[in-house]
């Protein structure tokens, strides 16, 4: 008995080239699971910083007969550092405005300026940590310093990852332009960057300003 044979060729396509992968990323609807998932991540980060703020609130006055905020903090330097991070949020906002207009080069320029401000923030923070350790104000010295280094260091680590992410996206935009996938990633980084800005305002107020008033 003759059997039916499927003569359809699965390799027949409009082009002469075989394709074994999806050349175009599948479409993401506006308000898709990517944005939702990133908001969930930000909420989990909020919980982490809330715990660190609570720990600092409990241990922030436990000096163990050691130096306190008035003895250690240079408020002028911290104010300059705060300005660096605030400026970086403003320049990132300019980058997003240029992205909406489809200007690749101008978007890249503002992203680069944002990265410079972020690096300046990290540089000043590392200088502060180095100065404190040099004078013996290490995390082991007191509960206050342990809580301080943990809270401020965790924020600095987030900024470091944010700069790495920023550089990665600049490379992606340079290679592929402002495609929908890159726009979505830039939006996620925008939320992350402004989130770090808000957290730092809390650190500056709760740790530095209130510490100097104790």
Number of helical regions: 6
The beta-strand count equals 0
SSE pattern: HHHHHH
Radius of gyration: 24 Å
Unreliable residue stretches: 1-15
Structural class, from helix and strand content?
Answer: mainly alpha
Terminal CA distance reads 96 Å
Overall 3D geometry? Answer: elongated
- Percentage of residues in strands: under 5%
Largest sheet: none
The residue fraction in helices comes out at: over 70%
Membrane topology: Multi-pass membrane protein
Subunit structure: Heterooctamer of two A chains, two B chains, two C chains and two D chains.
Subcellular location: Cell membrane
Pfam families: COX3 (PF00510)
What does this 3D model show about the protein?
By secondary structure, the chain is mainly alpha-helical. 73% of the residues lie in helices and 0% in strands. It is elongated. It comes from Tianweitania aestuarii. Belongs to the cytochrome c oxidase subunit 3 family. Pfam families: COX3. Residues 17-212 form the Heme-copper oxidase subunit III family profile domain.
Walk me through the topology.
Blueprint: H1 33-59, H2 69-72, H3 75-101, H4 104-134, H5 143-176, H6 180-213
Helix pairs in contact: 1-5, 1-6, 3-4, 3-6, 4-5, 5-6
Membrane topology: Multi-pass membrane protein
Keywords: Cell membrane, Electron transport, Membrane, Oxidoreductase, Transmembrane, Transmembrane helix, Transport
InterPro entries: Cyt_c/ubiquinol_Oxase_su3 (IPR024791), Cyt_c_oxidase-like_su3 (IPR000298), Cyt_c_oxidase_su3-like_sf (IPR035973), Cyt_c_oxidase_su3_a-hlx (IPR013833), Cyt_c_ubiqinol_oxidase_su3 (IPR014206), Ubiquinol_oxase_su3_dom (IPR033946)
């Amino acid at each position: 008995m003759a059997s039916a044979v499927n003569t359809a060729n699965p390799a027949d396509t409009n082009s002469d080239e075989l394709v074994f992968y999806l050349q175009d990323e599948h479409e993401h609807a506006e308000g898709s699971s990517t944005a939702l998932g990133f908001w969930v991540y930000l909420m989990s980060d909020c919980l982490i910083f809330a715990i660190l703020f609570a720990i600092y609130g409990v241990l922030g006055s436990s000096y163990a007969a050691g130096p306190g905020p008035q003895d250690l903090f240079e408020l002028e330097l911290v104010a300059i550092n705060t300005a660096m991070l605030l400026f970086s949020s403003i320049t990132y906002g300019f980058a997003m405005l240029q992205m909406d207009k489809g200007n690749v080069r101008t978007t890249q320029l503002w992203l680069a300026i944002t990265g410079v401000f972020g690096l300046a923030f990290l540089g000043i923070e590392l200088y502060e940590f180095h100065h404190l350790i040099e004078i013996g104000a290490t995390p082991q010295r007191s509960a206050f310093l342990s809580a301080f280094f943990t809270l401020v260091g965790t924020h600095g680590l987030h900024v470091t990852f944010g700069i790495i992410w920023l550089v990665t996206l600049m490379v992606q935009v340079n290679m592929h332009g402002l495609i929908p996938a890159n726009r979505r990633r830039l939006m996620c980084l925008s939320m992350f960057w402004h989130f770090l800005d808000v957290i730092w305002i809390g650190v500056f107020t709760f740790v530095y300003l209130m510490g100097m008033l104790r």
